[in-house]
């Protein structure tokens, strides 16, 4: 029990009830990443249970879809209020299973809640269209209808906000959902569902299948089911591609928020202090585990040393620790495997000539087995080269690599030299350059002289292999609706 939220045996969630025992008879463990110790277990549900959730969502669809937009809006609004009333409890659950510092967790809960508020309002604005008819005896009308049952698969890095962003839009327009949260962080999802139940969601509108061993089979079943009309996924590009392929035979609508490899360009005319702060915010939030985190810092060669030094000085003051400790500024990574991947990227860079301004290796050189928790020291590397792994793969950890460039054309070419295209950032005081570069960056979101770009009112999403569709904003409703054109002969 955390405060007002009682999650007795952590469980799945079907028909507004927690399911404490999986048919498989198996359970899987959830770990505290700051200690590496088990904090709870969840039932390991399988294909039978996801099918049950799909049928419950299908059954709930007509009633939920036929409610007035205002009726759905009232429930979403209530859910928003309940999230805020229980924000500290939700934040604690989040810090517990994900590791991020409590203040950051609280930030995610508030940010996440705003999607319910936003979509409670947008629910009422699902306008259609009347097209001036070219024929005298016809009238042409376009209405928008809910997609149907939607499969929702979410990652562990924002276990609460990634769900509210999807639930808010889906439920606002009258869809029902079957959810598979990440196995590392199912508790935040379950806590959210409990509040949804209290807010008045009818049975079957949301189903949650907690699973670890059956992840692939459950995902495949969601993709191949004829009763599921769309998939909304946030996670890696590799898994996104699998889901896209698996969904081809049933021609599903896909909303995919996949990996990024964000460039951050600092031109010679930039405000260096602001650029350093923005780079740090974007690079080290959630210890670098966000898909819009800066992955490649391109700094003009004339200011590279100054930029590196200012960044080093700030990063050296970070305080790594448990998210519950007051002085902690940065928490652990999600798993030991994540730590190893980050270290591999750093070692690769160092071996090929990069220099560590700060970090670059474990503080104590103990073996992984004797270290406590999944920590990796915040690292700033300089003298990076374009063939290093960090330049080409998403590192997803607290490592900032500084590359240099000479001209604007070169910087743009480097920024675009990846198959990813989620977010991109740059700093410059030259107005014309700001327009030029923003338009040329091959990404779905650009931060110009700013790196705090996420907002429930703005469309989040990528181009190239970073995904399909947009979340949040007015555009977020598109993913969960389809147009119907009615031609009325008179
Ligand atoms: P990450 O690297 O962030 O863990 P993943 O893409 O592996 O990214 O995970 C995101 C979500 O996708 C998680 O809920 C995970 O369990 C789920 N997932 C992973 N593999 C599959 C799969 N083959 N089918 C369906 N879901 C999957």
From TrEMBL:
Keyword Disulfide bond: no
GO biological process assignments: carbohydrate metabolic process; gamma-aminobutyric acid catabolic process
E.C. numbers: 1.2.1.16
GO molecular function: hydrolase activity, acting on carbon-nitrogen (but not peptide) bonds; succinate-semialdehyde dehydrogenase (NAD+) activity
Active site: 257
Keywords: Oxidoreductase, Signal
The keyword Hydrolase appears for this protein: no
Protein family (similarity comment): Belongs to the aldehyde dehydrogenase family.
Protein name: succinate-semialdehyde dehydrogenase [NAD(P)(+)]
Gene label: UGA2
